[in-house]
Design a protein that fits this description.
Elements lengths: L4 H11 L10 H16 L6 E6 L13 E8 L6 E11 L2 E21 L14 E8 L13 E3 L14 E3 L8 E8 L2 E9 L8 E5 L5 E8 L2 E5 L3
Parallel strand pairs: 8-12
Antiparallel strand pairs: 1-4, 2-3, 3-4, 4-5, 6-7, 8-9, 9-10, 10-11, 11-12
Helix pairs in contact: 1-2
C-alpha cells in the first residue's frame, strides 16, 4: 500500500534530526514532541522501541505568538502497536485546548520461551528456558528474564512465551506452619514462635496465632519469618 505524498513528507519532517525544532511548522513540532514523550515513557524497559507518528495532528484554533505543548497521557502503558498521545496546547501561557497525536510503536528485544512442557508451581531451570529475538508487538507483560521469588501459576506447553500473568510469588510461609515472629514496639523487639493461618510471599500480610491464642496480622519478611510493628 502506497502512502500519500503529504504523509511521507510529514514523516520525513518529523524524523529529520537536523531540523531546528523552533522553525518546524506546529503540527510537525508537536508530532516530534509526541514521539519523544512516548519514548521517554518507555525508558527503562527491556529492549528498544521504535515509535513514529502516523498522521499529522489536528490543532485547535489559536491566536498568539508563543505556543507550548504539554504532554498529558498515552492511551497505552506499553507504546506498541497503534496508540495515541494527548497534549494540552497553551498559547502565550493560556490553555487553548487539547489535541491527540496518532502514533505507532514497534519493540525489538528478546523474549523468554519454555523449551518443554512445565507443570504449575514449577520454577524453571536455565535449560528449560530459551531467549528468542523478537521484533513487533510483544504479548502484554512479556518477560525478558525469569524473576527470582516467582514460580509458574499454571502449566505451560512447549514454546509458550512467558508473561507476567503466568507467574505467582513463591510463598515463604504456608498455612499451619510455625513462623518466627518479631514484634517491634519502638526500640524494643521481642521474638516469639507463632502459627501461620494463611500462606504468604515476601511482603504479604498474613494472620498468625500466638501461643496465647491471640491473632495478629504480620508481614512476611523471609522463609518462616514474619514481623509485627506494634502501635504503628
Amino acid at each position: 500500500m502506497r502512502l500519500p505524498t503529504a504523509l511521507l513528507l510529514f514523516a520525513c519532517l518529523v524524523l529529520s534530526a537536523g531540523d531546528d525544532e523552533k522553525a518546524l511548522p506546529l503540527p510537525e513540532r508537536l508530532a516530534r514532541e509526541a514521539v519523544e514523550y512516548a519514548q521517554a515513557q518507555a525508558k527503562g524497559s527491556a529492549g528498544q522501541y521504535v515509535i513514529r507518528a502516523t498522521k499529522p495532528p489536528l490543532l485547535p484554533r489559536m491566536k498568539g505568538t508563543e505556543v507550548q505543548f504539554e504532554p498529558s497521557y498515552l492511551s497505552k502503558r506499553e507504546p506498541t502497536g497503534a496508540f495515541f498521545a494527548v497534549f494540552r496546547v497553551r498559547v502565550d501561557g493560556r490553555l487553548a485546548g487539547s489535541t491527540r497525536i496518532e502514533l505507532e510503536g514497534r519493540w525489538t528485544g528478546k523474549l523468554l520461551k519454555v523449551t518443554e512442557p512445565l507443570r504449575r508451581k514449577t520454577v524453571p531451570t536455565e535449560d528449560q528456558l530459551e531467549e528468542i529475538n523478537f521484533e513487533g508487538n510483544p504479548p502484554t507483560g512479556a518477560l525478558t528474564s525469569f524473576p527470582a521469588g516467582y514460580r509458574l501459576r499454571n502449566a505451560v506447553a512447549t514454546g509458550h512465551t512467558l508473561t507476567q500473568a503466568d507467574l505467582e510469588p513463591i510463598p515463604l510461609v504456608n498455612a499451619g506452619e510455625r513462623v518466627r515472629l518479631s514484634v517491634k514496639s519502638g526500640s524494643l523487639i521481642i521474638s516469639a514462635d507463632a502459627t501461620a493461618r494463611g500462606p504468604g510471599a515476601m511482603g504479604d500480610k498474613i494472620r498468625v496465632e500466638l501461643p496465647t491464642r491471640k491473632w495478629v496480622q504480620a508481614v512476611v519478611t523471609g522463609s518462616g519469618e514474619a514481623r509485627v510493628d506494634w502501635g504503628s
